[in-house]
Amino acid sequence: MIIFPNPHPDYPNDWMLVKQSDHDDHSGYIASHMVSPQYWQPTDKRLLTIAVAMHDTGSASDEDHPLIHMEGEIGRPVSFWTVSPDEHIELHRIGVRAAQRVHPYCALLISMHVVGIHRDRLHIDPSPNRWHMPEVSTPAVEAFIAEQIALQQQLRPEAEYRLGVKLSDERLMNDFKIFELIDIISTQFSACGLADREMTYVPNAVGHPMTVLLTRQGEWEFRITPFPFASQRFDCPVMARRIPKRVFTSHDDFRATWYAAPQVVLPYFCSG
Question: Which of 23, 155, 178, 198 is the least buried, fewest Cβ under 10 Å from its Cβ?
C-alpha cells in the first residue's frame, strides 16, 4: 500500500492509504486517455494499458492481509517503501506470472518494471527528484534479477511472434519509458505529494528524448507539459482509505481498522 505523504485538509489526523490495486486502476485510467501525438505511441497501446493496469498485481494480493511494523517504525502500517527488497521479490513474481497468462508483451514490460524497482528504473532517469528503491544487492535480489532477465529473453520473441512486430532495443525501451511515465504520473499524485518533477528521457513521436515537466499548481492539481491528454483538463481522482494515525498494537488491530476504513476520493486533476 501507499501512505499518502501529506495530511488531507479535511482529515489532518488521519492517514490516507492507497491500495496498490487502486494505483493500478489509476495508472490504467491514465494510460487509456493518453492520446497526444507528441508522445511515442507504444507498439500496442491496448496491451500496454493492460500491463500498466496490472503492474502491481503481486503487491495488491498481499493487501488482503496487511502488516504493521514490529521493529523500527513499530505500530505503523507496512507500505510499499518499507517492505524489504527481499520481501518484494515473491510479490513481483506473482505479478509477472499473472501477466504471463495475459500476453507475453504485458509480462515483458512488467518484468522490466520490477527489475527496475531494484535497479533505479533501469537507469533511465538522471534527475535528482525521482522515486526509486535502493539498489540493495542481496543474494535473493541478485538471483531474482538474473531470473527475470532470463525470462525477458524468453518473453521477447514470444511477444514479437504474437504482436507480429520486431521489438528492437530502441522500440522496447521507448515502450518501457512510456510505461514508467504513466506509473510516475500516478505515483506523483498518491505518493509524492505533488512534488515538481522534470523527466528528460520521455520519447517523443519519433522516439527521441524530450523533457516532460510536472508542476504543482495547487492542492490537487498538476500541470503537465507537454500535455498528453485530449483537452486542457484531465480529471484523474485517486481512491484512498482513511484510517486514524496511531500506533497499532497488532496485525489484527490494524487489519480490523483497514477492512472497515471509509473510502475517500482524492480529487486530483491535470492541466495543460
Answer: 198
pTM: 0.93
Give per-residue pLDDT as tens, 90-112.
899 999 999 999 999 999 999 99
- Residue 258 CB-density burial (10 A; 0-12 exposed, 13-18 middle, 19+ buried): buried
Residue ranges in the chain modelled with pLDDT below 50:
none
Residue extents of the structural domains in the chain: 2-271
